[in-house]
Amino acid sequence: MRAKIVYFALAAVLVVYFVLVGSRGVMLIQQGTAITVTFGAAVLVLPFIGAWFLYQTTKFARDANRLARELEAEGGLPVDELVRTPSGRIDRDSADEVFARRQAETEDAPGDWRTWFRLAVAYHDARDTPRARKAMQRAIALHDGRPVRTDA
């Protein structure tokens, strides 16, 4: 719950920032000179890029949570069997061991979104966030029946 509160607070701050930056862009355009119109147009692009990024991130998190709820209802969420250090950090060897099992499971059933979801969790536990995100994107695409990129 704390993560959701922080996420929505940061998203609200970003939206305020987008409005402020957008207003500055409009003010620059209203000046009417060639340089200020050019800079104003360039400044106006930034809020649109930021809004697109915020939308994509929110959509990804919502879709991943939807899959997690569905997998939990099926009783298929991965069990936390990781060894942790006294400070609570995941032991690297333990994460690698679980990852190897999840990878083998995914290789045995590459068309099952559930195995890709569990692999994404294993990647995350192994601190490989980019691959975790790609695996989760694949799980979402497989679940939703969308085409899956083969280069990921």
Automatic annotation (TrEMBL):
SUPFAM superfamilies: TPR-like. The keyword Membrane applies. Keywords: Membrane, Transmembrane, Transmembrane helix. The chain crosses the membrane at residues 7-29, 35-55. This is Tetratricopeptide repeat protein.
